[in-house]
Design a protein that fits this description.
The structure is a single chain. With 509 residues, this protein is an alpha+beta fold. Helix content is 19%, strand content 34%. It has nine helices and 31 strands. The strands form eight sheets. Strands 8, 11, 13, 14, 16 and 17 form a six-stranded antiparallel sheet that branches. Strands 23, 24, 26, 27, 29 and 30 form a six-stranded antiparallel sheet that branches. A four-stranded antiparallel sheet has the order 1-2-4-3. A hairpin with an 8-residue loop joins strand 1 and strand 2. Helix 1 runs antiparallel to helix 3 and helix 3 crosses helix 5 (77-95). The radius of gyration is 27 Å and the shape is globular. The model is unreliable at 1-8, 121-171 and 175-181 (pLDDT under 50).
Length: 509
């Protein structure tokens, strides 16, 4: 990028975030988590937050978990950290002179709002003018005005200054333009509650830092072990208290996912599960969707990732999705929000590639998410792929290169409705290639759905006609539990149970 180019707001945000990552990985910031968290928060809030909201009290509460009524005269951590961040930024850019990225991040004295400057060697620009004429000054002012107007319309304001020598650098200051409220989301929205920087999950989805909230405090349980997820960091932070979110969305229909995990209860007495210790309500646009909600009871345990899916959600008349979490006993908690755009009246299918740690697309372009919602068992990725080695004809044989095996379960969250469940299997262990062991009767297991047997004495080798041969079993009319889950249990009889893929799709009337 050069100092005179006018890029789109999205491109500018990407450049700023890329520079933020470079700065946070530098020696000046790697040694201080406090300064890194502070800088990441003010940069993201400058980009996405409302104008004028970056105040000392907000930073104290959101970054340093101080109480909302803390006394700034007694707690100077925000001011002290801001001063230290300015020093570290200066040291970083002094040390990296000539090798830094195209954007520079600054924190001006007396302000908590970051400034972003395009930073380009003057040699990449037009040759410098040694003597400035009156005409040149007029042209320069006119150009600056045009850039200012263009930047304002795009959500950015630009100020450019041309260097006086070939060795100097040209800078263009980027600051948030006068946006009265956050811009509506054109695509899926994901918010990681309590986060100060973006997060990419195992399935490749990007979650934005926390925003659009009012009230509550952020609690962090950094070392908590979270079950039924490969993304525990989604659940280790939570907003707690009596709070709300007012999220701008484009008109349309959305599938709402709310993420919870009970990580904040005090030590429980022997024989106590924690149920009943925390109860709260959840309202969407003023309509009650969850009453006396108990995360422990819903998730069937503490430190268990829990997800609720609500269909047919749309922004209110003011263009905002209003979510409120009034407490009943104790405080309300929340870890994540997803608003996923769908066609009216529909929900998205769930596709899980069992045992695989990242997402995968099949030949039809359908995404299969990384392994999720499981408890127990073991993940395995096989090489060579037994299905491919056997010369099987079906496409998308890569699905059968990974599996979850053992004695395990899946708790798949879905919206209210009726579903078609497809389970995919391929015998890759009990066969002739494994030292001659195996064959019919070597692996036998049952599969239950919400307590009802779907498969009894299921033998993959026998049913598929040999090792490395994919086989599917499909079941219709599946309805979720009262907790909005499809619970699948894989129970071994001989050897170990296994599954390669799970697909849940709504049955349309």
């Amino acid at each position: 990028m050069t100092g005179g180019e006018a890029k789109s707001g999205n491109s500018d945000e990407q450049a700023v975030r890329a520079e933020l990552d470079r700065v946070l990985q530098s020696a000046e910031f790697r040694s201080s988590k406090r300064c890194s968290d502070f800088l990441a928060y003010v940069v993201e809030h400058t980009i996405t937050g409302p104008i004028g909201a970056l105040k000392e009290r907000l930073i104290g509460v959101e970054v340093f978990q101080l109480p909302p009524d803390f006394d700034p005269g007694q707690h100077a951590i925000v001011r002290v950290t801001a001063t230290e961040v300015r020093k570290r930024l200066a040291q970083h850019y002094l040390a990296s002179n000539g090798s830094r990225g195209p954007v520079r991040i600054d924190l001006p004295p007396g302000s908590y709002k970051a400034e972003f400057r395009r930073d380009t060697p003057a040699a990449e620009m037009a040759p410098p003018v040694r003597r400035e004429t009156r005409t040149a000054r007029i042209v320069g002012i006119a150009a600056a005005v045009v850039l200012l107007l263009a930047g304002g319309l795009a959500g950015w304001r630009w100020r450019t200054s041309i260097a006086a020598s070939p060795d100097a650098r040209s800078t263009a200051l980027l600051t948030l333009g006068p946006i009265p409220k956050a811009a509506p989301q054109a695509e899926d929205l994901r918010i990681l509650v309590g986060a100060v920087r973006p997060y990419t999950d195992r399935s490749g989805h990007t979650w934005s830092p926390d925003r659009f909230f009012t009230g509550g405090l952020v609690r962090t349980h950094a070392s908590a072990k979270i079950f039924r997820t490969l993304d525990p960091d989604i659940y280790r932070r939570q907003r707690e208290g009596d709070f709300r979110y007012d999220i701008p969305l484009q008109p349309g229909s959305y599938e709402l996912h709310l993420h919870f995990a009970e990580t904040g209860l005090p030590d429980l007495s022997v024989g106590s599960s924690g149920e009943g210790e925390r109860l709260f309500r959840v309202d969407v646009n003023g309509q009650r969707i969850l009453d006396q909600f108990d995360v422990v009871a819903d998730a069937d345990g503490v430190n268990v990732a829990d997800e609720r899916v609500i269909r047919n959600v749309a922004p209110a008349a003011d263009g905002l999705l209003h979510l409120s979490f009034p407490p009943m006993r104790g405080t309300a908690v929340l870890s994540g929000i997803e608003a996923l755009a769908v066609s009216p009246g529909t929900v998205r299918p769930v596709r899980i590639r069992a045992g695989f740690p990242s997402s995968w697309r099949d030949g039809a372009g359908q995404q299969w998410d990384a392994d999720a919602y499981f408890m127990g068992g073991n993940a395995l990725v096989r090489s060579p792929n037994p299905a491919r080695e056997s010369g099987s004809n079906p496409t998308d044989l890569e699905l059968y290169a990974s599996e979850r095996w053992g004695h395990f379960s899946y708790t798949v969250p879905v919206a209210e409705g009726r579903y078609r469940l497809t389970l995919r299997f391929c015998e890759g262990h009990y066969g002739s290639r494994n030292s001659g062991i195996g064959g019919v009767g070597s692996r036998v297991f049952d599969v239950y759905c919400n307590g009802v047997a779907l498969l009894r004495n299921f033998d993959i080798f026998k049913q598929a006609g040999g090792e490395g041969k994919p086989i599917e079993r499909t079941f219709s009319g599946i309805q979720p539990t009262a907790q909005g889950k499809i619970v699948l249990s894989f129970v071994p009889i001989v050897g170990m149970a296994c599954v390669n893929g799970i697909e849940v799709a709504e049955e349309r009337k």
